[in-house]
Amino acid sequence: MKEKIHPKYFEHTKVNCACGENFEIGSTKEMIETEVCFKCHPFYTGKEKVIDTAGRVEKFKKRLAKKVEPKPKVKKAIKEKKA
Question: Where are the alpha helices (DSSP H) in the chain?
Fold first, then answer.
């Protein structure tokens, strides 16, 4: 390996999750804060968890509630007059 081009590697990086879980990994950062970890991620837990950022879920639900089903179009027969 070349000297002095690689970032410093921390063997015991502390990871803090929003769910309260704390654990250590190896990383180039000394401390990592995350919103979702292996203890609370839906893929690993099997539970659905909606992570709402700035009310996006509520906005979507409001738009969905306002949505009106379109009425089916009625085709009108066009009569051609022969001259």
Answer: 42-45, 56-66
